[in-house]
Amino acid sequence: MTHPCVRLSRGAVVAAAVGALVVPVAGGTAGAAPLAAAPSPTPSGDEVRDLTPAVKQQIDQAVRRVMKQANIPGVSVGVWTPDKGEHVKSFGVADKDSGRKMTPNLFMRIGSETKTFTVTAVLKLVDEKKIGLDDTIDKYIDGVPNGDKITLRQLAGMRSGLFNYSQDDAFFKALTSDPQSPFTPQQLLDYAFKHPVLFQPGAEFYYSNTNLVLLGLLVEKISGQSLADYIQEHILDPAGLDDTSFPTGNEFPQPHAQGYTNQTANGAVEDTADWNPSWGWAAGAMISTLDDLRLWARTVATGRLPDGERLISPDTQKERLITPKTPIPGAGYGLGIFDVQGWIGHNGSLPGYESLTIYLPSAQATVVVLLNTDINYKNEEPSTLFGDALTKIISPDHVFNLPSQPAAR
Questions:
Q1: For residue 379, what are the contacts with CB-CB under 8 A and spacing of at least 6?
Q2: 43: how many CB neighbours lie within 10 A of its CB?
Q3: In a domain, 114, yes or no
């Protein structure tokens, strides 16, 4: 499945690429999640099972089963609850050549989870009353097809009708012929804008990385900072995300996992650790770690920083968490965020890497999955397979169960 991701040749569908540059679609319910974050742990009730040794063993067995089934080199998983325990563990290898083990501290590319940071930057500017969600994009960026009709809300909610540049054949050829070459935001828009609009703004849901490039340019224009600098100063630093970064080239902090993809010119599997993620930019270029994403999961879902202070105002956060239904059964998508059966968050997919970061507000539970391949299994993204398997065990009434969709180029 292709989801809210930054996948190259695959259109995004919710289940597959919540974090992928291709098409992150968001999950389940269409209502806003609870905003209040209690300063002290709140009992999870029956929403989440106790992470007893037996349950942890079930989790490990499920992870190993998915790894074997989908041929996953390495994965790190984390499950955290306020009162039922936690379970953090890595499996498999970070480097197939050397046999170096996967470990929970590795830096990983997070693909479309970048969208949660870019949209948060937009929402902060909304809170500062520098922009409005119902402003049209032509007020800030020239040359956008239907720009006088497309609102910032429709861009963030994947309802603009603009073609997804990462599904353009010429783009795919350019990227796979020289994966280390840089792309500018304008180049990405040029690939998208040569295609006709797909529908009138607001008429449908269609996951498009083009939307996020426009929002990234908007942040830069209004703030006067680069997108990377704005996110660092106004989001990463306040949230204490010291191991999360927005690279401008193919830099990759150590230690990191190697990444394996078949999204290549000839379909052969290649190591992508040194590929330049600039083609994903505001839609998918960022890097993070398991523990940073644990902190970020709650911040995205509640609007609150780890210390309890607000990053996003209650009113704006409420807007973010309105998650209208998508064509994918059980999946709703809000402003750079999805809701699948109560789990709020995003997935990510970039050649060689996938991620999933979700938060269940009713239980204050968090799940993060990081893996070093994006190769689909029976048209389904491996991060989704892990999300489904884990939540069936820990929250059987809230299963991250996105249906498989045919991958689209």
A1: 1, 404, 405, 406, 407
A2: 12
A3: yes
